[in-house]
Amino acid sequence: RNFGIVVDGVRTSAMVPYADMLNHYRPRETKWTYENHKRAFTITTLQSISVGAQVYDSYGQKCNHRFLLNYGFAIENNCEPDGFCPNEVPFKFDLPWQDEIFDAKSAFWVRDGHGKLIRVCVSDNENTSFAFACLRVMVATKEEFQALSGAGGTGAVALPHTVKDIRFPMSLRNEKAALTMFVGMINDKLAAYPRSLEEDKVLLAGDSLTPFSNERHAVIQVAGEKEVLEHYKTHCQVALELLSFDVNDDAAYIGRHRELRDSGCSPWILKYCSLDPMGTIGMCRRMERRRLQQAQEGTSDPARPHIV
């Protein structure tokens, strides 16, 4: 392990064996730097440390796959003080080659790079947003994609230039299809493991795995991946259930949302499903109500222009 330091204004790396002997702990209890006036690499405590106690360093906020790859260990409870867990799972997103508008989608898809290998954690960060954006494009119909790209001549403004720019749902239908595709991808990943998450938990709780062994660290790593996958599987299932509610019956929807909240549903899932202005399903429901209203108006008066 090397340490990134600045010596006389020049950024460089240093091998510091004694510092490298410190074990990892979060939140950090020490900080390190190179002090030019001392011509020395220094470690400073950030809190009181008892005489004879072990002194720890922090290797930073990282997914267990990086801890295991770079340092040879994995952390069983890899959570920050605020509850955030940086463990991730990679997903590779590809356009279905048999899509009737594959060429048009592909031209849009590659604007921010061909590869779409995205690591997601239990959060609603940039990577999560990017993953859902990819799914929406993958399942978009010709009409939805034309509206997205402006090819339909709707006159819409602020159209996304790249996949990553897609921050909001396209339609209720599209979001359902995206969630359905995502849960299928998740199930495929879960099925590829030889054990379930529950079986991993039993292994870790027992005494068959030698403490600090490679086998135990490997089980900790894959269990962390499965926890992320199970979270997003639940996310998709809950969201699909709520998307099936009558878009004109907000009372029933709110009642179910409260039940989920009271049962301890993840705050990230509740946020996605919120009827608030920025809640994804709330937007889907409003778009669907508008679409149904415009369709009804168009049926009652064919001569009246409307947006589809």
TrEMBL record:
InterPro entries: Rubisco_LSMT_subst-bd, Rubisco_LSMT_subst-bd_sf, SET_dom_sf, SETD3_SETD6_MTase. Keywords: Methyltransferase, S-adenosyl-L-methionine, Transferase. Residues 99-229 form the Rubisco LSMT substrate-binding domain. GO terms for biological process: methylation. It comes from Florenciella parvula. GO terms for molecular function: protein-lysine N-methyltransferase activity. The lineage of its organism: Eukaryota, Sar, Stramenopiles, Ochrophyta, Dictyochophyceae. PANTHER family: SET DOMAIN-CONTAINING PROTEIN (PTHR13271:SF137), UNCHARACTERIZED PUTATIVE METHYLTRANSFERASE (PTHR13271). This is Rubisco LSMT substrate-binding domain-containing protein. CDD domains: SET_LSMT. It holds the Pfam family Rubis-subs-bind.
